Amino acid sequence: MTARPPPLASRVPPTRSLMRIRDYTPRMREALAGAAERVGVPIGRGLRTVGASDALIALRAGYPTVTLASVEATKLPTNYHWPSGVPQALRWETIENAIAVCLQFAGERRPAV
After folding, report:
1. Among 1, 25, 51, 83, which is 20 to 30 Å from 58 by CA?
2. Cα–Cα distance between 62 and 59 in angstroms, integer?
3. How far apart (Å, rounded) are the C-alpha atoms in residues 58 and 26?
């Protein structure tokens, strides 16, 4: 019988734990909140999760990073990676608000030509 390797988490140095909560870049968080305010879209702030987002890769690489996400009253995303995540479940007002915020945010970061 061969010995099993230890669980993955035990092989990761403590400073690089898989469950570590990483904060997004403060200036990017402020800029995103400001963009939302300027287009009149209310956003909640201060939510934290141990779940990963696509932005985690860039954040770990040292890039200034921020995430905009939608959650329910439970503070959890709706239908995220679930079979119930079908087109009929989309909330178009939420999508339109996210687009407005992102366009404002990106436009404010565009380099001057």
Report:
1. 83
2. 5
3. 15
d(CA 104, CA 34): 9
More confident position, 50 or 101: 101
Q: For tokens 């954040």, what's the residue? A: 59
Selection from 62, 43, 51 nearest residue 104 by Cα? 43
What's the mean pLDDT when you consider all of the chain?
Answer: 78
Question: How many structural domains is the chain composed of?
Answer: 1
Q: Could you give the CA distance from residue 23 to residue 70 in angstroms, rounded to a whole number? A: 18
Within-domain flag for 13: no
Alpha helices in 26-91 (DSSP H): 26-38, 55-60
Give the structural domain span for 27. 23-109
pLDDT in tens, 52-105: 678 888 888 989 988 888 888 887 777 777 888 888 888 899 999 999 999 999
Q: Which residue has the tokens 């860039």?
A: 58
Q: Determine contact, residues 10/87, Cβ cutoff 8 Å.
A: no
